[in-house]
Structure to design on (514 residues):
């Protein structure tokens, strides 16, 4: 019998015998029948267990910097991943391990003729990689025709399943052509004609009017002060280590003080999944155990917590490690009995404005008006999920592109323009008929955005299809609903953040809610 399944069966029987309704059943046939019926349900368990046994940890890459390429040129490099799960990886068969360009359905804009297909650059180079071993993935990317900075996001896949920890971000800067080409586009707008951007081959942006005086402050709109955001950073079966640059406290879910820690003193959290208990160790010595949630809270706002066991380097610089966070860290078991995933999560709870400063949804050198439009949309998106906390259960948003990419305090330190954009738009969000509007956005359209009803069920009147002329002929990257980030970036060179938001989100108002 599968040892994992056998362990879960034995553990389940122990718990089953303790259930109140079984205590009333006499020993013999009735108890035996209950156990047989319950064990029959365990036949479904291996599928769920198996899915969690594929994990990866990036260990090395051939080129850790931004790649500069001329249009049409290619660049070849490699990544190495450690198989940190319990199942072997293979490079053949229906479940072979590959790299896939995220969100691409047909063919990537960065396709190279040596790819496996239009969206998968490579498969595992080795025939098989056992748990604990390193595997190599070699592939090439081709620069698209349009100049600019791109972030190519890829995932390790086993068949149609993502491998946890196998996310890759490759930054490519496509250089402007060196030859002089006569332009055929309509001239850029002047002071006497600032309502349109046109392109003879792509159509017209009919930009709305906007003035900062339109933005009104109304604290009654949401009846809340600056909200807290709970970010699901990671889940782990391995020990988690936390320290800080100042004093912090460890408290349980009832706010009872358990431990006080000093600057630099590291603590280890070990979770026993069979007992569903957390154990705290300091310098190898166990100091307590609990079945409670644990909260690691700084004693002052200048203290930054660090998950010292967490390696979270951006692909373009392996010397960085985004494992520092403002606010509170929480270790929280998502109990399956309460609808949870059965995983131990590390959650970062912090103020909304601090959360936004840690977002990595744009590069810091982007046009400032674009950064402000992105920040306002991101604030509205996160606040919507604070008010409607149904997507993830124990936290508000993930730290990945499934919601909004969040890298914490390290991103804030190296992104002064994004921080400035957050400060200048504090509390500003998107509203439709005085109701907070959810504001999805995505990487790049193919010439038009999609309405909500084209992609998801129902409809939202502010999320209708809009022309995105600068993107005509491009490959669509993402779901296509709401604001096109690439189109908004280009508009940000000429137009205000308010005009950009009012263009992509129809008939909305921007209001300061706190």
């Amino acid at each position: 019998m599968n040892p994992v399944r056998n362990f879960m069966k034995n553990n389940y029987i122990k718990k089953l015998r303790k259930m109140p309704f079984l205590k009333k059943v006499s020993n013999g046939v009735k108890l035996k029948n209950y156990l047989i019926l319950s064990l029959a349900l365990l036949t479904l368990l291996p599928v769920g267990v198996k899915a969690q046994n594929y994990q990866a940890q990036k260990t090395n890459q051939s080129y850790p910097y931004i790649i500069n390429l001329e249009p049409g040129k290619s660049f070849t490099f490699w990544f190495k991943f450690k198989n940190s799960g319990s199942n072997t990886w293979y490079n053949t068969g229906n479940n072979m391990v590959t790299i896939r360009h995220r969100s691409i359905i047909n063919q990537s804009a960065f396709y190279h003729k040596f790819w496996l297909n239009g969206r998968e650059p490579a498969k595992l180079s080795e025939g098989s990689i056992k748990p604990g071993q390193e595997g190599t993935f070699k592939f090439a990317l081709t620069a698209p025709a349009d100049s600019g900075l791109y972030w190519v996001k890829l995932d390790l896949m086993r068949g149609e399943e993502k491998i946890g920890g196998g996310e890759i971000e490759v930054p490519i800067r496509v250089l402007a052509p060196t030859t002089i080409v006569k332009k055929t586009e309509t001239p850029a707008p002047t002071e006497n004609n600032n309502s349109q951007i046109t392109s003879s081959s792509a159509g017209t942006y009919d930009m709305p009017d906007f003035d900062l005086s339109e933005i009104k402050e109304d604290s009654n709109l949401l009846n809340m002060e600056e909200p807290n955001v709970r970010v699901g950073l990671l889940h782990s079966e391995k020990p988690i280590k936390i320290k800080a640059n100042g004093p912090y406290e460890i408290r349980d879910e009832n706010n009872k003080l358990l431990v006080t820690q000093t600057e630099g003193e590291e603590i280890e959290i070990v979770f026993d999944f069979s007992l569903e208990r957390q154990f705290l160790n300091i310098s190898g010595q166990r100091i307590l155990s609990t079945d409670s949630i644990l909260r690691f809270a700084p004693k002052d706002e200048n203290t930054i917590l660090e998950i010292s066991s967490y390696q979270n380097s951006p692909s373009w610089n392996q010397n960085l490690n985004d494992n520092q966070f403002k606010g509170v860290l929480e270790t929280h078991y998502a109990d399956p009995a309460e609808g949870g995933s059965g995983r131990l999560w590390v959650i970062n709870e912090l103020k909304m404005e601090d959360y936004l400063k840690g977002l990595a949804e744009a590069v810091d050198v982007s046009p400032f008006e674009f950064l402000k439009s992105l920040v306002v949309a991101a604030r509205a998106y996160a606040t919507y999920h604070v008010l409607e906390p149904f997507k993830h259960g124990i936290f508000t948003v993930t730290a990945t592109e499934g919601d909004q990419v969040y890298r914490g305090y390290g991103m804030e330190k190296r992104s002064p323009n994004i921080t400035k954009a957050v400060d200048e738009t504090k509390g500003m969000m998107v509203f439709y008929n005085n109701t907070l509007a959810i504001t999805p956005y995505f990487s790049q359209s193919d010439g038009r955005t999609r309405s909500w009803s084209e992609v998801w069920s129902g409809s939202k009147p502010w999320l209708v299809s809009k022309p995105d002329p600068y993107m005509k002929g491009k490959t669509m990257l993402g779901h296509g609903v709401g604001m096109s980030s690439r189109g908004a970036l280009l508009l940000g060179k000429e137009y205000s953040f308010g005009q950009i938001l009012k263009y992509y989100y129809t008939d909305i108002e921007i209001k300061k809610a706190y």
User: Anything to note?
Assistant: The radius of gyration is 25 Å. The domain at 56-174 is CATH 2.60.40.10 (Immunoglobulin-like).
